[in-house]
Design brief:
Blueprint: E1 5-10, H1 14-25, E2 30-36, H2 42-49, E3 53-56, H3 65-75, E4 80-85, H4 90-99, E5 103-106, H5 111-128
Parallel strand pairs: 1-2, 1-3, 3-4, 4-5
Helix pairs in contact: 2-3, 3-4
């Protein structure tokens, strides 16, 4: 079995963040190595934990998802970013993708769909590294 995908979770909603950490923690194919609640904490967590993927919310305090994605991609170019948002319009999704996110998912998607996106993002990162 391949190594689990190492993830830094960036989500300001503490209840959702803890629930997602718990659900992902039950799986053997992913590992949450850090979890932060503010966009400004994304880069320090990425530098400290060197994840394969950052799972990034769109609406964040400090830096929003687009700004935090740009910062992560600049500081940690070998780390992929997948955005996970409750609601983002087409313009916001386009901005996230232009900032360097490889995928943008909604929070109401099945956990398996989210994990598949994380695994695909990690595979893309591995191929381009």
């Amino acid at each position: 079995m391949p190594d689990p995908v190492r993830i830094v979770l960036v989500e300001d909603n503490q209840v959702f963040r803890e629930a997602l950490e718990l659900l992902l923690g039950l799986r053997s194919d992913v590992e949450v190595v850090a979890s932060v609640g503010d966009g400004t904490e994304a880069v320090p967590a990425c530098k400290a934990y060197e994840p394969d993927v950052v799972l990034m919310d769109y609406r964040l305090p400090g830096l929003d998802g687009v700004q935090a994605t740009l910062a992560v991609r600049a500081a940690c170019p070998d780390t992929a970013v997948v955005c996970l948002t409750a609601s983002a319009n087409a313009t916001e999704v386009e901005a996230l993708l232009e900032a360097g996110a490889v995928a943008c998912l909604t929070k109401d998607q099945e956990l398996d769909t989210i994990v598949e996106a994380l695994r695909n993002a990690a595979a893309t990162r591995t191929r381009s590294a």
